[in-house]
Every structure is written in structure tokens, then in C-alpha cells.
Amino acid sequence: MAEIIDSGGGGGKGKHQKKRAKKHSARIDMTPMVDLGFLLLTFFVLTSQFSKPKTMEINMPVIPKDTANRMKIEDETALTLLLTENKDKIYYYYGMFKSDASIIKTTDYSKQGIRKLFRDRNKEVIEQVKKLKEKYTKNEIADTTYKRLAMNVKGDKTAVFVIVKADEKAKYKNVIDVVDELKIADVGKYALVDISPAEKKMLELFK
Amino acid sequence: MSKIKMPKSAPSLDMTPMVDLAFLLVTFFILTANFRQNEAVMIKSPSSHSETILPQNTMLVTIDSAGRVFFSLDGKEVRHNMLQAMADKYKVKFTNAEINRFLILPQFGVPMAQLAEYIRGGEKERAIIDKKSVGIPVDSVNNQLGDWIAFGWNEKQIFQQTNNIPKENWCRIAIKADGQTNYQAIKRVMDIFQDRNLNSFNLITDLEKETP
Questions:
Q1: Cβ neighbours of residue A156 under 8 Å, at least 6 residues apart?
Q2: What is the ipTM of this complex?
Q3: How many beta-carbon pairs under 8 angstroms link A with B?
Q4: What is the pTM of this model?
Q5: Are B157 and B75 in contact, with CB atoms under 8 Å apart?
């Protein structure tokens, strides 16, 4: 530590005595300054936050004014997920909705559940994107080309189209989890859609 | 053997480099620190694997676990014009002092009728109102959030065009919601955006630790 300097060094002992310069006058006691410096340092270290919030971008389909112009989804590629209050169950079916309970299958939010489902369903796209990525890392194709090609692959007609429908009881977390899995599985075509009354009724059966 | 000589004065250390370093760090932290804004509500965002960082310039709609809606938008000029437009529409009068206080308000979630009181209040009063507040009304009869969005977005566009802000830095829409919020409430907010032809959102999440 910095030494404490005796203030009585230089003297005004008598009136007629000449004032003498202190011996250590060139040294300033830095202790308070150092204390303050470290105090501030501690404060800023503790209060600063490095982790900026992350974000997921999602583009919702533009709602067409006339119903005739609505995009038709190929039945074979459609995969509809139904989310409800049940924390670890996702109900899903392929293609068109039929009011027949046997078409509905269940899975969960785990790696073996929804992620495997998407991976299996989207195998070709994942492989193609992987190849593109390899080319990109080897600098065979440019950044923008890679993005465009990947986009094309993901948006391919035969690629799976996932429709996410959540009912009133579903939690935001469930939806985010599913969208997250969609991104992981390179699914390019997905939409968040309102649940239909018929589907709601179907979910009731599974309670 | 000669005796080890003890130094006469107290042992002293040259602290200059340490002090230099300490102050360098202090300066660094002061300059890089951006203080957490006073948030009206506690939100526990859900986690995702997304590593995209939230853009700086956003119109932020926050929805808490009870489904209450809060709104925030940056830019003093934009906020000033937005408040004026809202005041005209809802026939609420604000004094100049109130408008000036509104400009620095971080985030608000009160109906128009209560806004003046909310602005006037100090931090404590605001916290009390925040606790009791019903949030910004979003129902179709009294869609105040829709108006905030419409006016805010409009003013922001004008501001961005007149100031020649590059397109990639333009305002984005961010939605921050608690993981336990009912999806219905979020859907309602998204619908309000979509009614105004705003279809692209940034959903704020925390980074999930587990690797994909």
C-alpha cells in the first residue's frame, strides 16, 4: 500500500522560523484515489451486462384480401402441429384434416420427439443445405449465392410445409420451442395459423 | 555474515501501473456499459437456439404473463409526434411538461385515460400503477395498441426518410413476451400488427445453453 505521509513534516513551529519545504513533498497519497478507482471498477463490472437479448426473426404470411388468391398447400407436404396446454405433448397430422381421430399422432418437445420428426421429414433439404454449407466453407460459392441457394432449397415445392396451430391454452414458450426446432431442422416453409373449431374438438378427445 | 539490512522507511510499492490499469478498466466499463432500462414488468423470455442479436432500433411490444401489453419506441421527435397524434385522437390534453416527461419514459402500459397520471407520477407512483394497470387495451372496440403502433410506425418512417437513415438500420418490430403467456395474447398482438400490414417480427428470446 501507498505509505501514509506524515503531515507534520515541514514546519511552521515558530513565527520567525523559515518555512522549509517538506522532504517527501513530491509524493501524493494515492490511496483514496485508488480506493475510488476500484470501487468504480467493481461497480461497473457488476452492473454491466454483456449478453444482449437474442432474437428470432419470423415473417408472417401477408393476409390476402381475397380468399381466391390464397396459397394452396400440397397435401403431401403439409404437416400440421396442434399445440395445447399439455406441456409435453404435440399433436400432429399429415396432409388434409379429417375428422377422424386415427390420423392424429403425438410427439413431445424433446430431441427424440419433435426434432427427430422434423429431421426425418425434412431429410433431403437438410442434406442439400449441408452440401451447400460445405461448398460455402470451402469458399467455392459466395456468401450471397449460398444464402440464395439455401433459400431455394428450403422453399422447394416438395419440401415439407409445417403449419403450427396453437389453441387458447397453449403457452408462448411452446410456440417458440416449435419455431426454434423448425429453424434447427432447416424448415423454410412454416406458418402460424389459427386453429379451426373442428381441430379444437379433436383435441378435446385427447384429454 | 553480514546482517540483512532492514529498510528504514515503510516498505513501499510503486502502485502507478496498477492504478493505471484500474482506471483504464473503469473507463472501459463506463464507456461500454449500457444500463438496463427500467422495465415496467418482469419478463422471463423463453429460450431458443437463435444467435441473432436484437437490432438496436426497434418498436417493442412487451406482453407479460398475465397478457398485459406494454409499448415502447425510441426517438424523442418520433415520440413527441406520436403522443400528439394519440392525444388528438383520444381527446386527451397533455401539458408541455407532461409531453417532455413522456419523451424519456422507458415503457408504458396504461390506457390513454390514465396516461397523464402515469407520466406525472414519480418512479414509485409509476411502479404502483404498473402493478395495477390492465395494460394497453387491445380489444377490437378499443384498440389503443393499434393506434400507438400506427402513429408510431408512421412517425418513425417519416423520421427515417427525412434523416436518410440507411434501410438496414430501419426500425424493426420486436415482441417480448413471457414464456408462460397464453399464445392467444401474442396472437392478438401479431394480428394487430398484421392488420396494419406489418408482417415481420423479431421475437425476443434468451440463448439456450444446450447445443443443438
A1: A125
A2: 0.74
A3: 152
A4: 0.74
A5: no
